[in-house]
Amino acid sequence: MSTMSITTSSTRPEGAPRGKRAGSRRRALTVTVLRCVLVVFFAFPILFMLVSSLKPDLQIFADLGSWRAFVPVGDVSLDNYADVFDRVPFTRFLLNSVVISGLTVALGIVVNSLAAFALARLRWRGRGLVLGLVLATLIVPFETLALPLLWWVNKLPSLEVDGFSLAYKQGWLDTYQVQIIPFIANAFALYLFYQYFDSIPRELDEAARMDGAGWFTIYRKVVMPLSGPAIATVAILTFLPAWNSYLWPRMVVQSEEQRPVMIGLQYFFQLNTSWGQVMAYSSLITIPVIALFLAFQRSFINSIASSGVKG
Amino acid sequence: MATTQQRMPASSSVDRATSARRPLGRRGDARAAALMITPALALFILFLLVPIVLAFALAFTNARLISPNPPEFIGFDNFSLLLTDPVFWASVRNTFYFAVVVVPVQAGLALFLAVLVNTKVKGAQFFRTVYFLPVVTSMVVVSLLWRFMYEPDGLINRLLQAITFDRFTPIDWLNEPAWAMPAIMFISVWQGVGFTMIIWLAGLQTIPVELYEASELDGAGRWQQFRFVTWPGLTQTRTFILVTITIAAFSLFTQINLMTQGGPLDSTTTVVFQAVRSGYQQLQTGYASAISLVFFVMVLTVSLIQRYLTREKG
């Protein structure tokens, strides 16, 4: 069985059968209480963040000791949000993050699926070796490479648009490309595509070949249109780290023009920290992702589920 | 599917073209494969292989991030400096401390949650969604939010006081050496456990329902069912979770950088935090590469041991 077919076909998990003995009523009650306690445990900080973003600092601190900390009561306004837009170029940061994660995801889908297609459906020498090497890199966390990579991108040449002329410059610091290009090729995404492509019947290729289709046509017109679930999985699993990325942009981006939203938070800790503003900024960068998650919940859950179950 | 079906009827008209192309066969395959794999391969070489090689090479040099001079070979100097640096040893200890607590707690709690929401009952979906919310909240936001809540007169202390009717003495969570790391462990589990829960759930779904029915007929209780049906059915999932969350735990950085900066008294500094501090803030790429190399060996060794211990027996 392939990875994807398990998870896409069974979004609602089968439950263990419920006990039929006398104690089952009490057990059901215990389970419900436990579940609700856990809801509080996971939700209260997020609720606190959203509610505090609407209050001035004085009100936040005054409300800390009571239930009022979790309810938008008292001096409630959108002032913190207005202050965020005054204090930092938030729209620019947001745009940067959208461009960076969007391009990382889109280019990643093309590059990794092409390579996975060649590995899964074409016969050529060295195929097994390349696949093995790609899988071996899965064990290397990015953090081990970050510092040598920092040194390395500092040496790479880049072209800079200067008015109407192109200027050569050394080093990739303070660019979009340094935040995108190193993260396009992704062994994990490649492997997910590989597994999925491997599960699509090869007779389809044969038939298309008979029609005179080349391999690129088969990729574009036959295999990719059938790979919706795999594309969704890769999109979600590469979007989250790109959007949340912190260590790397912190090191490679100094200028405001290329800064993603996660790094923008630093502004609020210079001079006087207003927690209300920090909470407003945090809410602003969290709400879109939560909204995306709620809208595509099934895809989110499936993509994470399929990352774990090996076919 | 639609595309293939549409293409089928056309086959007769291009028969001649096909037969003309045939002799190309395998050589055409190899060329197409080469074209398809080149972009990914080039990027892997440039941004994965080169940095790996550089980590090994630069660790034996005095390379600096910004320097007019080329790196000079200095032998094992970086490593001998590293091994005599008490802060480095503290970072290794802290990293292991974090992993040893977080990995089993997160895996265990996640399994508990997965079993708790693994039913068809209406509403299970709601609980799953809420437990998953911290996962879609970025670690940057989580770190700052909890830093605020951990303040001496912050939400956590006030809540604990309210629950215990003021018998609880407030703790300055992030500024006490004994409490800073546990406080960070707590939020790390809080943020990550929903992700692990989903992977356990996927594993639970692969266990056939018939096994539960059969064991129930045999009079197995809840615990026995878990012990003899659920647990053995999760062997693969278990290994995957163990290896992935261990690597993630070893890579601890964001929370440290945003909440404690390694303090108080180096009680929360980690290996990755040390690498960033020397390689980025102090511009010592050579020294940072040595730390990265030690880190890599650490992760590799632990992963291999885990794989060996969880290998399929028999």
Write a short abstract of this structure:
The complex is a heterodimer of chains A (311) and B (314). With 311 residues, chain A is mostly helical.
Instruction: Give me the secondary-structure category of chain B.
Output: mainly alpha
Task: Catalogue the unreliable spans of chain A.
Answer: 1-19
CATH homologous superfamily identity of chain B: MetI-like
Proportion in β-strands of chain A: under 5%
What is the overall number of helices of chain A?
Answer: 16
Shape of chain A: globular
- Outline the low-pLDDT stretches of chain B: 1-24
* CATH architectural group of chain B: Orthogonal Bundle
CATH class of chain B: Mainly Alpha
Average pLDDT of chain B, rounded to a whole number, is 87
Primary descriptors:
heterodimer, A: mainly alpha, MetI-like fold, 2 domains, two-stranded antiparallel ribbon, 16 helices, disordered N terminus, B: mainly alpha, 15 helices, globular
General description of the model:
The complex is a heterodimer of chains A (311) and B (314). Chain A folds into 2 domains: 55 residues, no CATH class; 201 residues, MetI-like fold (Orthogonal Bundle), CATH 1.10.3720. In chain A, 64% of the residues lie in helices and 4% in strands. Chain A is globular, with a radius of gyration of 25 Å. The N and C termini of chain A lie close together (6 Å). The N terminus of chain A is likely disordered. Helices cover 72% and strands 0% of the residues of chain B. Chain B is built from 15 helices and no strands. The N terminus of chain B is likely disordered. Classes of the chains: A mainly alpha (311), B mainly alpha (314). Chains A and B meet through α2, α5, α6, α7 and α10 of A and α1, α2, α3, α5 and α6 of B.
Please outline the helices and strands.
The complex is a heterodimer of chains A (311) and B (314).
Chain A: H1 3-9, H2 24-52, H3 57-63, H4 79-87, H5 90-121, H6 127-136, H7 142-153, E1 157-162, E2 165-170, H8 177-180, H9 187-199, H10 203-210, H11 215-223, H12 228-244, H13 247-252, H14 261-264, H15 275-295, H16 297-308
Helix pairs in contact in A: 1-16, 4-15, 5-9, 5-12, 9-12, 10-11, 12-16
Chain B: H1 2-7, H2 15-21, H3 25-58, H4 77-83, H5 86-117, H6 124-136, H7 139-149, H8 155-163, H9 177-205, H10 209-217, H11 222-233, H12 235-250, H13 254-259, H14 271-281, H15 285-309
